Amino acid sequence: MRLVLLGAPGSGKGTQATRLKDHLQVPHISTGDLLRAEVAAGSKLGLEAKEIMARGDLVSDAILLGMIEDRLSRGDTGNGFILDGYPRNLAQASALDALLGRIGQPIDCAVQLDVDTELLVERIAGRAKAEGRADDNPESVRKRLSIYNEQTAPVVDFYRQHGMLSVVNGVGTLDDVFTRILEAIAPVREVG
Ligand code: AMP
Known about the structure:
five-stranded parallel sheet, binds adenosine monophosphate, Rossmann fold, 8 helices, single chain, alpha/beta
């Protein structure tokens, strides 16, 4: 099962992806986590990405495509994968489409976690206290939400136009949302 999880910052993508990974037995590929690991390691890429991420801006499409290509070539994605945080704009969606077409592993399904903006802001404020992420400061949060609306929302339309999109209500308990996601992807799992 090759799945793209879409949703604004704070929509619960990361949490649900972790559960889905165990359930579907496929790797969870979070570009945010990959980038944070580069920052923590102090690599050249990490040094380049650090300020951009702290501001809430997007790291360059070329860097992200390189990271995704590299990650997909590791040989553990034969049964599929869950992409979390990628693609985030239309250029990334097209590049991913082309890459997966080339390796014969097209996306089966895109799931968008739908959560109201007010609740997103509340959730991120809670996460900021609990985790202390560098980009969970108010200014960066505003930037990330506006980038989501301007650049990532068209990606939702991209998958809708390709007939691959399921919209899932992301409000409720973790279990509720997880069950809804499983229901949304059930038809695709049966085919695959
Ligand atoms: P996330 O953990 O998915 O919220 O990502 C944290 C930050 O990493 C984002 O605010 C961006 O600065 C960067 N990032 C993650 N994924 C991408 C992507 N697909 N394209 C560009 N930047 C990204």
